[in-house]
Fold this protein.
Amino acid sequence: MKMVPQSNYKHMKSLFTLLLCLSVLLSISEPIKHQVSPKKYEATWSSLTQHPYPKWFRDAKFGIYFHWGIYSVPAFGSEWYPHWMYIDTLVWGSQYFDHHVKTYGTPDKFGYKDFIPMFKAEKFNADEWASLFRRSGARFAGPVAEHADGFSMWDSKLNPWNAKNMGPKRDILGELESAIRKQGMKFIATFHHSWEWGWYPTWDAKTDCANPEYAGLYGPKVLPGAFDYKNPNPAPSLEWFQLWKNKMIEVINRYHPDLIYLDSRISFIPDSIRRNFLAWYYNEGLKRKSEVSVSYKVGEMEKNSAILDLEKGTMANILESPWMVDATIDDLSWSYNLHPKYKTAQQLIDYLITVVSKNGQLLLDIPPRPDGTIPDEVQTILLDMGAWLSVNGEAIYSTRPWTQYGEGPTPDGQGDFNDKIPAYTSKDLRFTTKSDTLYVISMALPTNQNIQITSFPGDKYQMKAIELVGTNQKLKFTQDLLGIRVELPKILPSKYGVSLRILGLKKK
């Protein structure tokens, strides 16, 4: 998982977002915004909150992105390796530091920059990746454009430390943008570079980070307080803030992503710069007649100005406005790790179902190897998800939430950093709608050839028919004061739970 600094760092990412979630997310109720774009957006929150949620985003439901970069080379711990490898005084840091010294040498002799030639991506094939994503059922996909390590994954004119100049010596974003669009998917780019200020110990002469020759990667010389989460001391210069914005503008101008994902720690970016970036991007979308948007973490943008994104969690209930969650396929890391702990296809399908039932979209992170290959286990999981969606996608894609997200005895996790997926049963059901059809999706295969739905007692609801999605087979059912009991055929169309199509449901 994403590593979080110890308590003597005030920037504690998970604590900050978790506290916000407890006070905001679980009681939040956002109205659906007026869905007509203005002719031009002004750099004011009142104007930006008029920006509609893209229909493609509301319909897509499932996307894939990937933490792939220099940090994939050591394949130890997580994508926070470039930060922790320099720190030998904290519990987490010392694990990375000790591993680094034992494996590569001390950070003054072998710094993070020295991993760059080892990141060759020699087996990377963007078309193969995009084909896999499409077969997994994803409707949008894209890379981490720049992580907190300061290395750009595109042919950047602003940052010479990039994948075209060094390492792979290829325009990774450009190749992926072309391949993903050829598969009919929307293209996204994610940015985590708000973490770069103070990320490296440029104040420590015992590391290569203090060498001004490498300031383009490691940043200017600052004091330890620069890594404070919300109130860095010293604060970044205006030049640094402008570079933060201009890197994204460069990517938008060259690759035209449909969605820009912003990681946390943007609350210390001046409000005017955030507003000006959003207005510029939204106006570019109007010029190109393209539905674009930005995602943000809790509390870091004005509500309704962009898409709210949770990290590794879910909502307690249906949120009226569309939202997104980004989560990992590997419970231990966002980037490639030699000793992963992958979620199962069943867990991820259940996660997708429950997120969609609450008006959300799932953005799933996968960890490619530094050579550009995707682990076989990851491919198998993705293809299993795709197989399920090929049968049950009707109950997922282009749906909207019902009046309640579902029923069942097993509680979901709530808020950020709470993606431990429970062992759902066939009594755990989720609801979605499309037009006048209600879908009921079981979170596990029924063990006794029937599904009991308690939300539709006979004294309150009636319906015309119930069909099995994937077969169009009409099913026998009985209805009484306890709800509906649906009889299933012996042979089911999918192995990870089934979907029912309820036609003509209405209140009596």
